[in-house]
Amino acid sequence: MKRSGKTVTALIVVEAAALARWVPALASKLAEEWQAQVRIRLVGGQADNSALLTLLSLERMVLFGSWPRWSDRLDRAEIADFIEASSDTSYDVVVDLRHDPRDKWQADTLVLQPRFNGGTGENALAAALFFGGTPYIEIIAAKGEDDPRIVAGGMASLEAAEGTGGAMEAVWSRVIPLIIKARTTFDTKAPLADPAVRDVRHISTVNTARYGTKAVAQAAARAAYRLCCHAPHWRIGWRQAVEGNDVWSRHDLGGERWQVLADPGDHFYADPFPMVRDGRDYLFFEDLDHKTDKGVISVVAFDDQGRPGEARVVLEEPWHLSYPFLIEEEGEIYMIPEASLSGEISIYRAVDFPSGWRKE
Are residues 222 and 242 in the same domain? Predict the structure, then answer.
């Protein structure tokens, strides 16, 4: 887009600590859509975001491998083609990505700023994702002494996003077209909304402007723990029942100390279902691999001293399986595992108990 026969000049302002791969992507898109000369200015910024950066780095290693992500940090040299040559340059449009902008711009400069559930900057986006779910995005516009107005708004689709970095990328991919739309809306003098008036579409969203750096850091640390420690990580507790002195007889949870069924660490065990067959104790359970996030049904057999043997998989399907409900009817053993992702309720007959099962 050209104005008055001259090339549009645009500036993106961002904290150096928040310089991520999406920023030059935004610059390239603005240059293409506005036929503009786009520059980036790096400034000092909001306090420590090291916890968020640690989380994003861990996600990169665990979830994404070598694939480049928009949340990847860049240094100044990697955006050399976009770096502003002089801070004295005047611009037609400024896109301000900072948490706390304080600059005074020329009266004819259009200033656009994205806002996430009422907050500005990368930490506000992180806070919106940690504390508010899917953030509502607004683009605020102002020129000269005019009051800021909302010129564009919308929400991103996070259904397929992996991790915090994936969610941030999904939001940024929505921010870019909204910024492009915002300039057009402002230039056409379309009716603009007052930022003080909350849109009915996001009246219930959490206003994340009140969440500071410390709260975001704590949330990022918790997310990193869950990522690295396979949280939530369920475990199975077991103990031998003593006839006449068990929970059923006493009506309380006292008695022998519970033992934890050992798992390999990268799997969790849940939904135990005990079964006695030919005088021997068996324990069937959901066995979920953290790497695939898909459950199978496994079993352990207890020896004569009441010690569990090695876990072995007895039933696996292309879909997730859990809670192995077992019943016995006329000497036959059947299993009805939870398998909602298959879209049906299936029953399996034991043809070689406990490891052989046939779908009926």
Answer: no
What is the percent of the chain with per-residue pLDDT over 90, rounded to a whole number? 43
Residue 276 shares a structural domain with residue 194: no
Residue pair 339/296 in contact (Cβ under 8 Å)? The answer is no
Beta 312-315 vs 294-301: how paired, if at all? antiparallel
Q: Cβ-count burial of 354 within 10 angstroms (0-12 exposed, 13-18 middle, 19+ buried)?
A: buried
Host domain of residue 310? 237-359
Question: Do 66 and 177 belong to one domain?
Answer: yes
Number of domains in the chain: 2
The reply to whether 352 falls in a domain is yes
3-state DSSP assignment of residue 49? coil
Cross-sheet strand order for the sheet of 356-359: 322-329, 332-338, 348-352, 356-359
- pLDDT tens sequence across 54-90: 878 877 776 777 688 898 999 999 999 999 988 888 9
CA atoms within 13 A on the CB side of 132: 27
Residue 1 lies in a domain: no
List 295's β-bridge partners, or say none. 288
Residues 26 and 102 in one domain: yes
CA distance from start to end of the chain: 65
CA 39/CA 304 separation, integer angstroms: 75
pLDDT tens digit string along 315-336?
999 999 999 999 999 999 999 9
Tell me the per-residue pLDDT of 166-206, one tens digit each, with 9 for 90 and over.
Answer: 889 999 999 999 999 999 888 766 555 555 444 433 333 44
Burial pattern 39-54, b for ≥16 Cβ within 10 A else e, equals: bbbbbebbeebebbbe
Q: State percent of the chain over pLDDT 70.
A: 82
> Does 255 lie in the same domain as 107?
no
Examine the fold and report which residue of 195, 228, 261 is the final residue of a domain before the chain moves on: 228
To 5 degrees, how large is the angle CA 256–CA 259–CA 262? 170
